[in-house]
Specification:
This protein is of the alpha+beta class. It folds into two domains: 52 residues, no CATH class; 78 residues, Arc Repressor Mutant, subunit A (Orthogonal Bundle). It is built from five helices and four strands, in the order ββααβααβα. Strands 1-2 form a two-stranded antiparallel ribbon. A hairpin with a 2-residue loop joins β1 and β2. α3 packs across α4. The chain is globular, with a radius of gyration of 15 Å.
Length: 160
């Protein structure tokens, strides 16, 4: 789907939304099983249709919390980090250290950063809300410009 932060590829399965991939996503960042069907305009996958509807509302400033079935696939640690992302409120940010503390692994901020970078469901599981300890922007699969735009859309003021 086209979006204000570039072309997004939505990937769904029987268990829910599996991935939101960026236009220039690094190959292998999100391991996925072979895609058995590519859906073109007029598609009828209910989770993907609802994902697109909610993303459009989010980008238009009408939605602050997504309500979608998510099908995270990863290690137990990665899934705990991705679940913790869902608890970061709209318009707020957290550091990697704060996220590590939130999952009960206070010394694992580097590992949290690595898991955050492999988040398969960008935007919905808001990895863009994770920033460096000093408040600066750090890497983001969609690029720092997209991260800045998402945070601005949520009303977060960045101090540069």
């Amino acid at each position: 789907m086209a979006s204000p932060v570039g072309e997004l590829a939505l990937v769904g399965g029987d268990g829910g939304l599996r991935a939101i991939l960026w236009e220039n996503d690094r190959p292998g960042r999100v391991p996925l099983p072979p895609i058995t069907r590519s859906i073109t305009p007029g598609w009828d996958h209910p989770v993907l249709a609802e994902t697109e509807t909610q993303l459009r509302a989010y980008f238009a400033g009408r939605l602050q919390a997504f309500d979608l079935p998510l099908d995270f696939r990863g290690t137990e640690f990665q899934i705990s980090v991705w679940q913790a992302l869902l608890a970061i409120p709209f318009g707020e940010t957290r550091s990697y250290g704060a996220l590590a503390r939130a999952i009960g692994r206070p010394s694992a901020s580097r590992a949290v950063g690595a898991a955050n970078g492999r988040n398969p469901i960008s935007i919905v599981a808001p990895c863009h809300r994770v920033i460096g300890a000093g408040g600066g922007l750090t890497g983001f699969a969609g690029g720092l410009e997209a991260k800045t735009r998402l945070l601005a859309l949520e009303g977060h003021v960045l101090l540069l």
